[in-house]
Every structure is written in structure tokens, then in C-alpha cells.
Amino acid sequence: MVTLGTKIDAPTTRGPVDSRGYRIFRVVNTVVLLGVVVVTLYPFLNIVARSLSEEAYIIAGKVTIVPRGFDLTAYKLLMSDAMFWTNYRNTVVYTVVATLISIVLTTCYAYVLSKPQLKGRPFLIGVALFTMFFSGGLIPNYVLVTSLGMKNTIWAVVIPNAISVFNLLVMKAFFESLPSELEEAAAVDGLNTYGILLRIVLPLSKAIIATMVLFYAVSFWNSWFTAFLYIDRQDLLPVTVYLRNLIAGATSAESAAADADKVQAAATLQAVTIVLTTLPILAIYPFVQRYFVRGVMLGAVKG
Amino acid sequence: MTSTLRPPPPAPPSSPQQAQSPAPRSPRRRRSWRQALRRDWQLYSLAVLPLLFFLVFRYLPMIGNIIAFRRFKPGGSIFGEYWVGLRYFRMFLSDPTFWEVFTNTLVLGTLTLLFCFPLPIVLALLLNEVRARRFKRFVQSVSYLPHFLSIVIVAAMVMQLTSIEGTANQIVSLFGGDPVAFLQKPEWFRTIYVSSEVWQTVGWGTILYLAALTTIDEDLYEAARIDGAGRLRQTWHVTLPGIRPTMVTLLILNIGSFLAVGFEKILLLYNPLTYPTADVVSTYLFRMGFQSSNFSYAAAIGLFEAVIGLILVLSANVISRRTVGTSLW
């Protein structure tokens, strides 16, 4: 791995004095963890450097994490491709619509499942849980979606994966943790179930809903296979499939190894597409990371 | 909130068969159902759309698997035309390619389990020993990052890193070797696949362990120290038993998805040159279905895969309940 001599010593020592062996371990540990950081970040830096480099330097195998021969041609090339922007817009539209549908369905069902006294509740939970361990499989799903006439429509992308059982369990666990007195009081005041959900429960659940929106949005933003499977028209594809087609083309070109220039142009273009597709996620990542962590742990309690 | 993966004690009877039992047989039962409906119809109404979703997009495809036993015509009935019995199953069981991809699946699944299951535990233990808060948070944030990337992006990164002029070959030539077209070589595929899985999943995998680690009672460490246990023995006798329920739960889940090894990633990374090691059951099924239009044959393979997955998860669950007392439900 990487040898970085930096060592970060803890500012305070608590408890009994550490043994010599443990002090050595702490230094090694810091080095190992820095190694993990470097290995994790390297591919990102490499891609950014490649996207900004001149092709000649990439061909010569000279690009690592510093751009060589600063060059924005590939960015200009991609930015002027109308199809890239069409597909990028599709990704945004699909993500927004799919997340909306998913949130509504998941919230409704999770709320129902969180009512301990409800008759038939174990059955309703079982319906969802069973799908975690057994699924119909690729072919029957494809046959179904096709026969519903959803091919080449937005619905093929947004409906078949509308409810994630994991997210459902996270929300259910959260609703169960809410004090029931509030809802009972609201019921006494004459609010019906819908009113209680909309005016009492949801305002208390802003944090969990934000987490769920993030969970769903990221998974829909990143998804490519459903679109790849159900959408043939290029102007309806999301940007992930645009990138997939780009790399699929590049590999076949590479194995042919005929036109070296074209391969390299494709490599830079790939790097640029990766950068532009990842950018939104990287931009929000520092702010949303803790919501994800919290959501995962909440799910684990009842998972 | 930050509790471990403990089996929920008042476990809801989660198997549908068991839950279906309130069949409207006895009149008393029926009356109570009518009461429940009258009292809670608004709640039930909220469940209608989600139930419809599960019914149509989860359970209908399960039933749709009967095309594995029937002749299927594209464009015809989604349940096929006429019965052919176990013909398609016999076909793939006697198909040498199937056994080749089955072996590949087992090898890739085992390798993934071998690396992607223990490494998050190791990383979590290492992070747990860090005292500089800021540094710990920084390492965590960075290591979670790959989890948020699309598989397409990960695959594209892998391709760039392993390309002729990429980083991997820069290292090779640093040691005086000749550039290798890694993704065209069957002998390299497993290494590439497993490393990219490790890169993408290990950091995120630590979250549950780190949460479990915070719930371990400090007094246990104190007691171990008084008994003269060093750091290593404290880890062995206190820390590891403390996160065992989490470990077992995640192991069961990992075993359940054993056969479904990274279908999407392999689909993006493999090519005919690497089929000898890269082709797995799910990708073979995909090609049979969509490139050879042999839907019934592919459905038969898919059903086989799903049933084995279910059996694996159920038996892992039973074994762990009998041996260590932890189970999913």
C-alpha cells in the first residue's frame, strides 16, 4: 500500500498509560487508515485528471492524479452533444417522478404497518418481507412489464421498483417510535386517519422523510439496468445508459485496437462523462451523508 | 436508535402462510373482521395501492415463473401456451455451459464472501481504536463515498484504471513489465471484480459494526483490564462477542445473495474473451433470454437460482439460530 509517514497522535490519553506495543499499533493503524483513504480517493482523482488532460499524455500513460497538458476539448465536445443533455434531463425527470411515487407508497404502507392493533397486520408485513428473500426473476418481470405496454415509457423505469422493502422497514420502525398519545389526542379532537397522518404524523417525520427521499433519489439516479432493459429509444435513456453505451463502444473498439486515436478520444470522453454524472452526487454528499448513516442504523434495529 | 441487529423479541409471524390463517371460517372471526374493517377502513385504504404494487410487480412475476414449465411465445400469453413439464430444467441441467457458469458463480460468490464480509469488520475495529475524532470522521466519510456511485460509473472507472495506459499498467511498467490488457484476460477477471467490490462496499459495510461497537458496555473492558487482559485480548474477548449478532445477521444476508453475485457489474465488465471465468448464472440467463430469445429456458434457470437463494437463506438462518441463537426472524 501507500507509505505516508504522517502520524496523527491523539491529543489526549485517557485511562492507564498505553503499552509500548499498543503505541506502535496506533501508528501503524493511522498509516493503514491513511492508506485506505488514498486507495479510495485515487480512482476519483485519476478520472478528474484524465478528463482534464491532453490525449497524448493519456496515451503515453503519464496521467495519474495531476492533469497533464491541460485541455478542455473533451468537455466542450460532450457539452455540445445534445443527446447527452437530453439524457441528463431524463435522469432528473425519472429521479423526481420515481422518488415522489416511492415516497407516497412507502409512507402510506409503513404507516399502516406501524399500527400494532391493526387486524391482518402480520399478513401485510409478510407480503412485503417475503419479497426480500424470493423474487420472480428477470424473465417473468420483463414479460410482465412488456405485456403491460410500459416499454419505452417512463413508467417502466419508475414503477417496477417503487417500494424498497428495506426503506419500508426503516419508516415503519420510525413511525412505531412516535408516541401514540399525540395521535390519540388528535383522534379525540375529531381528526380522521388521513388528517392524523397529514397533520400530526408527517410534520413529526420530516427527518425520516428527508432520509427516505435521499435513499430513493440516489438509487434512481444511479440505476441503469431497468432503463437499459425496457427503453430502446435513445432520446428516452437516462445518462447512466448514455455512459454505459459509451464504455461498451470503447471496449469493442479497444479489442479491435484498430484506430488508436478514436479509442483515446473515447477514453477522455468517458472520463468527462463520469465526472459530469458523478458531480451532483459528490456535491450533495458532504451534506447528506449523516442522514444515510442514520437511516441505515434505524433500519438495522428492526431489520 | 443505535442498537445492534438484535432479533426483535416480539417477532411478528412473518410468513404469509401463517398470517393468512384468519380465514373467514368461524362466524366469530368473520364478525371481528367486519368490525376491524368498519373501524379501520381508512387505514386499510392507505394500504390498497402499495398492496397492488406488491401483487402486480412482485407476486405476479413469481406466478409468471410457470413459463419455465410451459412453451412461451413472445407476444403471446404471459403465462405461456402449453405445458412441457420439466423439459427446460432437463435441458439446462444437461447443458455443459450451465455447469461452467454455475462453477464461476460459486467461485466468484465465495471470493466475494471471503473478502467483502470480514474486511468491514477489520476496518471497523481499526476505526474504533482511533482517538482523534476528526481523523476518524474523515476516514469514515471518505470510505462511504464509493457506495453512492452508480455501478456504471464504477465499471467505467475500473475500465480506465485497467486500460492499457491506465494506472494498473503504469505500475506494471514501473517494474519493467509489459502492459497487460487486464479486462481481456480471463485469469484477471476475478481479481478485478473482487477488488472493485471491496473498494465499493467495505467502507459502507462498517456502519452497522461501528454502531454495534458503541453499544458495548465500558464496564466489560474495565473488568477485562483488571483481569490483566491486554488490548488484543480485550478485542478478542469483549469486542468481538459484542458485535457477534451483527456479524451473524450480515453473514446470513450475504449467504442469501450468494448466487446473485453482482449481475449488473459483471454485465458491464465482461466480454466474450473473459466468459471462461466471468460468465455467471445470471448473465448466462440474461443472454439466453434476451439475445437468444429463449424465454422459457432462461426462466427455468432463473427459478432454479431463486429457489436455491431462498433455501440458502432459510438454512443459514436455521443453522445460526441453533448454533449461536441469532436469526433474522
Mean pLDDT of chain A: 83
User: What's the β-strand tally of chain B?
Assistant: 0
Q: What gyration radius of chain A follows from the Cα positions, in whole Å?
A: 25 Å
Quick one: biggest sheet of chain A?
Answer: none
Q: Return the domain count of chain A.
A: 2
Structural class of chain B: mainly alpha
Rg of chain B is 25 Å
Looking at the overall shape, the CATH architecture of the largest domain in chain A is: Orthogonal Bundle
Determine the structural class of chain A based on helices, strands and strand pairing.
Answer: mainly alpha
Low-confidence regions of chain B: 1-24
CATH topology of the largest domain in chain B: MetI-like fold
Specify the overall morphology of chain A: globular
CATH evolutionary superfamily of the largest domain in chain B: MetI-like
CATH architecture of the largest domain in chain B: Orthogonal Bundle
Strand content of chain A: under 5%
CATH top level of the largest domain in chain A? Mainly Alpha
Biggest sheet statistics of chain B:
none
How would you describe the oligomerization state of the chains in this entry? heterodimer
- Beta content of chain B: under 5%
